[in-house]
Write a structure and sequence with these properties.
This protein is α/β, with parallel strands linked by helices. It is built from 16 helices and 19 strands. The strands form three sheets. Strands 11-12-14-15-16-17-18-19 form an eight-stranded mixed β-barrel, surrounded by six helices. It is rod-shaped, with a radius of gyration of 47 Å.
Length: 544
Amino acid sequence: MQVNLKRVTYVVTGMLCAMAAVYSLGVYVGHQSAEQKKAFVGNIAGIILAQAESTIGDALKAAKELDSKHISSCSPDNLRDFRALSFKYPAIYEIGLFNEKGQVLCSNLGHMEQSMAGMGIFGHDNRQILHLMTLDRLSGEKVLMLNFRRIEGTAIRVAISPKALFNGFLQKDLYKFGYASIKMNDGMMVNEAGDLWRNQHQDSAGDIVSVIHKSSIYPITVTVEIQASVLPGIPFALYIFVYLGGAIFTVLIGMMIFNLSKRDTNLRSEINTAIKRGEFIPYYQPVINSGTGAIAGCEVLLRWKKSDGQLISPKLFIPYAEMNGQIIEITRNLMTCVRDEMAEFHKDNAGFFYSINLTAAHFDNKEILDDVQDIFCESVISTLDLIFEITERHPLHDIDTASLIIDGLQSLGSKVAIDDAGTGHGGLAYIQHLGVDKIKIDKMFVEAIDNNSPGAPIVDALINMSRELNISVIAEGVETESQLDYLCRHGAEYLQGYIFAKPMPKDSFIQFYNAYHREIVNITPRPVKKASPALMQTIAAAVA
């Protein structure tokens, strides 16, 4: 079996792109899950830090309240004040006075004269606390000390139980698989909790999510670490959905591209078969001279009529044929068909012109010049009777080459027109640089004309510009009486549209042409007008 490398390349490329998209989605989901877990641990660290700051803040409030009472002795009333403050702020383990020698004078625990040298460091104003430190005393219990020096020579000391700073984790599972600590900024441990590292020593704990928060008020730092697997995040089922669904998506993309590439190959083959069978045929749409009302020529439009009589819309095959270069041979066969089937008609209608569409591919080389000469050199329809319309679905690849080809067509006596002027890739630049003979005003601009509008600026501009450049104007897509009247009054030389007739096969077109001229153009010159209902019924019957 022969392998189609082009198809394989398409499929592999498409699947790789799909896999990349799925992988990117998986990475994004993983990142979002990690961010959620990080935020969760960060919230816990924030709660612990806020609780610690609040507790230390309460101790500082108690010291300031005691200072405001100007207590300097250990009287029974003062001891009651110490005890009252310890009840008011439950986190306070001990609050009392000590002298400059570091001796505790008294506290809420009673009278005591113990040496507390080196307990505290005071601020630059000799009053405010600068540093917090831990101290082993009272049966080895570790306490957090806050020292508040007073001007009178005594100082206030507040001892905080480290257990009051935080109560461990909020949930049992987080305590089992997590760890939290409060340290002084100099590294001294204040308190810690959690079984994470003991559990990890026994069995690997996997990925750890760690967050560190440093207080902006006090010299303490909170660290929280929790095993990632116990943290809330994006459900594992979503990962399964992303990757399993992504795998299915990748396979479907591959199948779709395979089918499209197969269809692409089939369409190319079908078009080649249709060319050989002569299934591409011309339809003709009349072009009216606005000055005389006569049919001056026609536009030759490509149609695909299959052997079973089915008509394929041009939108379904012309863009593909242009992209693959098949339009060259199709156009060559179309011109041959026009030459042969319109020969008898043209003998009786000298000067009648035929507009034939050319695409960007026709202007890549001089092959079209050879085709035109070979087909029409000894034909009843001569090159003088031809107008070639440059369609702008794709841009011209080489303006200089295109200009030479246009000169060649004009040297044969043919005219060249810009189709759909102002709407395509080259737009008005083509009119300026290519030296064309005619322009066609697109239907979208003609539709702007109606009875309620003062004018159609783009239509007016194109007509005025063509008059300055001494080139003709063909307005296509004319469908209403108001459009017809406006275009005639403003000097559009030729008119084309459904108000006159739709594109028709050869026999129907000739029948329409003869009926139209019998009814409308018996007197010359005559203002142009649309076909009568009777004529339209004749046309409809002929086309059917």
